[in-house]
Amino acid sequence: MDKRTLIDDALSDPGVLIVFGGLPGAGKSTIAEALAAQIGAVHLVIDRIEAPLKARLGADIGPLGYNVAYQVATSNLDLGHVVIADCVNPIAMTRNAWMSVAMGCQAKMVQVNIQCSDLQEHRRRVEKRLTERPRQGLPDWQSVQARQIDEWPEADLTIDTYMRTPDESVSAIVSALRRLAPSRFGADPFARGVMGSG
Fold it and tell me: Pfam families per the record (predicted)?
C-alpha cells in the first residue's frame, strides 16, 4: 500500500472529538498533552486560545475563546483527525456546544471528566502553577473554588487524578477509547498508526 492510499484511508475515517472538563489545577492539561502525544491527536487548549484574545480585548471575552475552539475543532474533525478539547467545560451549555460540533462533523464524541478528590492536593497544584507561571493570568485557589461547575452525568469516563498518576490516567482513557470508538481505536490500533508509541 503506497503513501497516498494510507493518507486517503486515514482521511476517510470519521473524526473523534475527546472533550475534557474539570476545574483548573485538576490535571487536565497534563493528561491531555500526554494523550495527544500517544495517539497523535490535535490538542486544543482553551487557555492558550484565550490568552492573546484577553491581551488584546481585556479579561472579559465571554465565550469568544470557546467559539474559536469550536471552529478549529470542526476544521480538523472534517479532515478525520482526532481532536482533544482541553477546557474547564463547566456547564451544560458548553458541553452541548461540543456535542453540536461532533454531530455536525459526524464525529464520535468521548467526554472525560477530570477531578482531584483531595482538596489539599488540588490547592497545592493551583498555588504551584501560580508560582511557576505568575504572568499567565491563572486563577488562584479562591477563584477556583468559586467556579460554577455543573454535574456531568453524561461523561463517558471520570478520572480522579489524586488516585491515578498521569500515565495511569492516559491508559484508562485509551482503554475507554478502544471501547467507545472501536472503529478508530480497535484492539490493534498500532496496525494503522492511529496510536504512536509516544
Answer: AAA_33
State how far the alpha carbon of 129 is from the alpha carbons of 25, 26, 133, 170, in Å. Answer: 8, 11, 6, 21
Which residue, among 10, 95, 81, 6, has the nearest Cα to 43 in the 3D structure?
Answer: 81
The structural domains of the chain, ordered by start, are: 10-174 (3.40.50.300)
What is the average pLDDT score of the chain? 86
Cell numbers that stand for 13 in this block: 475515517
pLDDT tens for 24-61 read 999 999 999 999 999 999 999 998 888 888 778 877 77
DSSP 36-102: HHHHT-EEEEHHHHHHHHHHHH-S--TTHHHHHHHHHHHHHHHTT-EEEEES---SHHHHHHHHHHH
The Cα-based distances of 173 to 65, 96, 153, 158 in angstroms read 26, 21, 17, 9
